Amino acid sequence: MSTAKWHTRELKDENCTADLVVVGGGLAGVCCAITAAREGLQVLLVQDRPVLGGNASSEVRLWILGATSHMGNNNRWSREGGVVDEILVENLWRNPEGNPVILDAILLEKVVVEKNIRLLLNTAVDSVSVDESRMEINSACAFCSQNQTAYTLRAPFFCDASGDGILGFLSGASFHMGAEGFAEFGEKLAPPQPTNDLLGHSLYFYSRDTGRPVKYVAPSFAMADIGSFPRFRQLGTSDSGCKLWWLEYGGHLDTVAQTEEIKWELWKIAYGVWNHIKNSGKYPEAENLTLEWMGMIPGKRESRRFIGDYMLTQQDIVEQRLHADAVSFGGWAMDLHPPRGVYSFEPACTQWHSRGVYQIPFRCMYSREIRNLFLTGRLISASHIAFGSTRVMATCAHNGQAVGVAAALCVGNQCAPRDLASGELLERLQQHLLRTGQYIPGISSHAQDNLARSAKVTASSERRLDRFMPNGETIPLDEPNAMLLPLNAGEVPVFYLICDVEEGTILTARLMQSSKPGNYIPEVLLDECSVDVAKGYHQEVALQFGARLDRADYVFLMLQATPGISIHISSERITGVLRLVHGMNASVAKSAVQSPPDDSGIDSFPFWLPERRPKGKNLAIRIDPPVAAYRAEQVTNGVNRPCLTTNVWVAAQGDEFPTLRLDWSEPQTIRELHLAFDTDFDHPLESVLMTHPERVAPFCVKHVRVLDDAQRCVAEMSDNHQSKCKLNFQPPLSTSSLNIEVIETHGAPAAIFGVACYG
Ligand SMILES: Cc1cc2nc3c(=O)[nH]c(=O)nc-3n(C[C@H](O)[C@H](O)[C@H](O)COP(=O)(O)OP(=O)(O)OC[C@H]3O[C@@H](n4cnc5c(N)ncnc54)[C@H](O)[C@@H]3O)c2cc1C
Question: Could you give the C-alpha distances from 526 to 470, 512, 621, 642, in angstroms and in order?
Answer without folding.
Answer: 27, 5, 20, 21
